[in-house]
TrEMBL record:
Belongs to the class-II pyridoxal-phosphate-dependent aminotransferase family. GO terms for molecular function: acyltransferase activity; pyridoxal phosphate binding. It comes from the Bacteria. It comes from Vreelandella nigrificans. Its cofactor is pyridoxal 5'-phosphate. The keyword Acyltransferase applies. Residues 18-368 form the Aminotransferase class I/classII large domain. InterPro entries: Aminotransferase_I/II_large, AON_synthase_class-II, PyrdxlP-dep_Trfase, PyrdxlP-dep_Trfase_major, PyrdxlP-dep_Trfase_small. This is 8-amino-7-oxononanoate synthase. Keywords: Acyltransferase, Transferase.
Length: 391
């Protein structure tokens, strides 16, 4: 890409209206965020300059960790350079054998991880050393009865249930309360990957309010800073005892680079702004739902859940590639999720509206999709004027 990623991008010299981005609120185009970032650079520099183990982290990391602990109602938070590293660190810690001293240590190798089948690649990758059916089990996506069945099979061993709030490919939302009820009944620990839900849901005026009221009941809450906050980094919040042990056991926070200090500072400022002004997210969600409705009105087959992640179901992997190419020719950049990200020949286009998409861009894109995938009259295609406007 040339220049910044936002509602539009230039890739290999060609301009696109971008529906592939995940930094959908466009914070990196916000002059106030950029100014605050530059001030922080002058104060803290560009890097922590050493690992947590050798030197420690900077004030912005503690600012961010304190803010996240308060937000999640937990004692402590540990930050990581990315959400992926937070997930890897969690699984490391939960399956580790480690001596803290010659007389104290921990052996988590008897633990059983129980994943929702649709968990993110980073979680499955981190657990790939575990034997499936013994230390690693899975329940059907969002299926509470199946989770119960799996936990019955775990017996007396320590179980850790791992699931997401909002799933990236189909935007489905977990029955958070019911899953946590089952965890509590079976005395299983719970880890919720809230990468996609963080700062989005949980307010009474928004969808899924009831579900997100339960989030704080999870033993561990993981977030990514690359989505609603639009920067880079990850974090896990939990009680102090867990986080203190995790600092060492995870390995992916203490023995590696931290989030860049000004990024941690800017992330804290963005989170504060989103908390102080809920209308930013309310407006975004409102437009995102209108976009979804526009696609439904075109007769497109969409994912079931009305979250801000909209997937257009295509089917054959080869057809999905053709659609992507066609859209690219018309000036739209979209991501295709195909096998192995989803089941073979259940390919989809995963769309996330950007806060700065104009109504004309949205309408132009909807009409293009309608022509390619819905029942419509091709003469209505409006991409020509759009491309002129972009140049
Ligand atoms: C559910 C989920 N977990 C974890 C991650 C990884 O987060 P990050 O991009 O911060 O590494 C993602 C990002 O795509 C995600 O969607």
């Amino acid at each position: 890409m040339q220049g910044m990623s936002g509602s539009r991008i230039t890739r290999n010299g060609l301009p696109y209206v971008n529906f592939s981005g995940i930094n959908y609120l466009g914070w990196q185009q916000d002059p106030q965020v950029l100014d605050a970032f530059c001030e922080s650079v002058k104060r803290y520099g560009l890097s922590t300059g050493g690992s947590r183990a050798t030197q420690g982290v900077c004030e912005p990391h503690f600012r961010l960790e304190t803010l996240l602990s308060e937000h999640h109602g937990k004692d402590k938070t540990l930050t990581f350079a990315s959400g992926m590293l937070a997930n890897l660190g969690f699984i490391n810690a939960m399956t580790a054998k480690f001596n803290f001293s010659t007389s104290s240590g921990i052996d988590n190798r008897d633990a059983v991880l129980v994943f929702d089948r649709d968990c993110h690649w980073s979680l499955w990758k981190a657990a790939s050393h575990l034997k499936y059916g013994e230390s690693l089990m899975a329940f059907k996506h969002n299926d509470v009865a199946d989770l119960e069945r799996v936990l019955q099979n775990v017996g007396d061993r320590k179980a850790i249930v791992v699931f997401e709030s909002v799933y990236s490919s189909d935007g489905s939302v977990a029955p958070i309360g019911e899953i946590l009820d089952v965890c509590e009944r079976f005395q299983a620990l719970s880890y919720i990957d809230d990468a996609n839900g963080f700062m989005v849901y949980g307010e009474p005026q928004r969808n899924f309010y009831e579900e997100f009221q339960h989030l704080r009941r999870a033993d561990f809450i993981m977030i990514s800073l690359s989505k609603s906050v639009g920067l880079e980094g990850g974090a896990i919040s939990a009680n102090a005892e867990y986080i203190d042990a995790f600092e060492v056991l995870s390995g992916t926070s203490i023995f590696t680079a931290a989030i860049q200090p000004p990024t941690a500072d800017a992330a804290a400022s963005i989170i504060e702004q989103l908390k102080q002004d809920p209308s930013i997210m309310d407006d975004y969600l409102c437009r995102s739902l209108a976009f979804r409705q526009r696609l439904l009105d075109s007769g497109l087959q969409l994912n079931d859940t009305p979250s801000y992640i909209t997937s257009v179901l295509i089917g054959k992997d080869s057809k999905a590639e053709q659609v992507r190419e066609q859209l690219e020719k018309q000036g739209f950049c979209v991501p295709i999720f195909r096998y192995p990200a989803v089941k073979p020949n259940q390919a989809l286009i995963r769309l996330i509206l950007h806060r700065y998409h104009t109504d004309a861009e949205i309408e132009g894109f909807a009409q293009s999709l309608e022509v390619l995938l819905g029942d419509s009259d091709p003469s209505r295609l409006v991409n020509e004027p759009l491309l002129v406007e972009m140049n």
